[in-house]
Amino acid sequence: QVHLVESGGGLVQPGGSLRLSCAASGYTFSNYDMSWYRQGPGKERELVATITTTGGSTSYLDSVKGRFTISRDNTKNTLYLQMNNLKPEDTAVYYCNAKTPPPSVIRYTYWGQGTQVTVSS
After folding, report:
1. Helix (H) and strand (E) counts for the chain?
2. What is the pLDDT of residues 3-58, one digit of tens each?
3. Omega before 102 cis (within 30°)?
4. How far apart (Å, rounded) are the C-alpha atoms in residues 25 and 77?
5. In this structure, are residues 11 and 77 in contact, taking their beta carbons and an 8 Å threshold?
6. What is the 8-class DSSP label of residue 100?
7. Which residues, other chains included, contact 112 with Cβ-Cβ below 8 Å and sequence gap of 6+?
8. For residue 106, is pLDDT > 90?
9. What CA–CA distance (Å, rounded) separates 100 from 97?
């Protein structure tokens, strides 16, 4: 069974930092692109960052560029999100996502349960 388990969320002041982790199991981690999504209260889920299978390419939501860094360790089946200079608008539940990359004809996607990040003074 596929499991994605997020951890590392918490309460921080504006300007603070957090490092989120996503521990993956039940699938071939290195064959999937990995992403972080987030969903604030009353808002739609949005894509925050993506990293390709070997970590060769990354992409970010414009509002987090220069502040967040996505990375992965394929030897540990773990995805990370380093979040610096946090802002109140970063407050959300953060979700780990795995997806088969293009040009795969058959697509598979998996989700974690989420971890809460709250930025407040």
Report:
1. 0, 11
2. 999 999 999 999 999 999 999 999 999 999 999 999 999 999 999 999 999 999 99
3. no
4. 7
5. no
6. P
7. 4, 5, 6, 22, 95, 96, 97
8. no
9. 10
Handedness of CA 28, 31, 32, 34 (dihedral sign): positive
Round to whole Å and give the CA distance between 2 and 44.
25
- Report the pLDDT value the prediction gives residue 29, as an integer from 0 to 100: 95
What value, to the nearest 5°, has the Cα angle with vertex 38 and ends 69 and 74?
Answer: 45
Given this model, what pLDDT does residue 105 score? 82
pLDDT of res. 103: 85
SS3 label, residue 70: strand
Q: What phi, psi does 54 have (nearest 5°)?
A: -100, 5
The amino acid sitting at 45 is: R
Gap between the Cα atoms of 72 and 22, Å rounded: 9
